[in-house]
């Protein structure tokens, strides 16, 4: 279980994740504005080294040309259906909240599902659709999950994916796997995120 403080040097309790909501996706303008001011899990998914740090920083400064495609449209359409299955099967409620970390208000995440167990442990859900079978979880999705765990203070995440063939699901139920928190991976992502934010601040001076 996570400690109830930021680090050994701090003895102040960490704020409950429910008190750290910045915006909700239903208010898209506020949600996009809040996301633009920090490092999201989508950003963290791409942070694999120096080149990616520069790319993410450039998009923070100048925006991205990617506006979506048929695959992202399909994912958005299927997510509510898969989220209902997740809630019925695992009791993890859908969420559209954008949270900031207890450690840094520029560290952000919008997991697809959140629950707190009776023991006070936070668990998340993340939903994906894919046109290809997965032999293993793609690395960028693992980075996204670890970042969300860091921001929410979560112990593990139910990663759920639905494979489709020409946008028709190939199975009656999606596949899933529990992803455990990895402090080493989180540490690397926090360091890379700091480099992105440092580049952005320098360019904006």
Ordered list of secondary-structure elements with their pairings:
Elements: E1 21-24, H1 28-36, H2 41-45, H3 50-62, H4 70-90, E2 93-94, E3 97-100, E4 108-109, E5 113-116, E6 122-130, H5 139-152, E7 156-165, E8 168-169, E9 175-180, H6 183-204
Helix pairs in contact: 3-6, 5-6
Summarize the structure.
The chain is of the alpha+beta class and 205 residues long. Helix content is 41%, strand content 21%.
Strand residue percentage: 15-25%
SS class? alpha+beta
From the spread of the alpha carbons, the general shape counts as globular
User: What's the helix count?
Assistant: 6
The radius of gyration computed from the alpha-carbon positions, rounded to a whole number of angstroms, is 17 Å
Q: Gap between N and C termini, in Å?
A: 41 Å
Number of beta strands: 9
What profile does the largest beta sheet have?
Answer: 6 strands, mixed
What assembly state would you assign to the polypeptide chains in this entry?
single chain
Helix content: 40-55%
The sequence of SSEs as H and E is EHHHHEEEEEHEEEH
The low-confidence runs, each spanning 5 or more residues with pLDDT under 50, are 1-12
Average predicted local confidence, pLDDT: 91
In words, what does this structure look like?
The protein is of the alpha+beta class and 205 residues long. The chain is built from six helices and nine strands; from the N terminus they run βααααβββββαβββα. Helix 3 packs across helix 6 and helix 5 packs across helix 6. The longest helix is centred in the C-terminal third of the chain and has 22 residues. The protein starts with 20 loop residues before the first strand and ends with a helix.
């Amino acid at each position: 279980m996570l400690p109830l403080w930021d680090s050994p040097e701090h003895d102040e309790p960490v704020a409950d994740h429910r008190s750290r909501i910045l915006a909700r996706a239903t208010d898209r303008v506020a949600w996009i504005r809040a996301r633009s001011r920090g490092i999201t899990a989508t950003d963290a998914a791409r942070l694999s080294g120096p080149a990616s740090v520069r790319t993410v920083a450039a998009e923070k400064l100048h925006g991205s040309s990617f506006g979506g495609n048929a695959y992202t449209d399909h994912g958005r359409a299927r997510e509510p259906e898969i989220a209902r299955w997740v809630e019925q099967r695992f009791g993890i409620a859908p969420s559209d909240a954008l949270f900031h970390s207890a450690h840094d208000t520029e560290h952000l995440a919008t997991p697809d599902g959140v629950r707190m167990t009776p023991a006070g442990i936070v668990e998340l859900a993340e939903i994906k659709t894919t046109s290809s079978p997965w032999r293993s979880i793609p690395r960028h999705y693992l980075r996204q999950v670890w970042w969300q765990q860091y921001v929410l203070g979560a112990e593990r995440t139910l990663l759920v994916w639905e494979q489709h063939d020409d946008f028709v699901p190939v199975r009656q139920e999606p596949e899933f796997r529990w992803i455990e928190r990895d402090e080493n991976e989180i540490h690397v992502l926090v360091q890379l995120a700091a480099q992105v934010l440092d580049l952005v601040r320098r360019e904006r001076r």
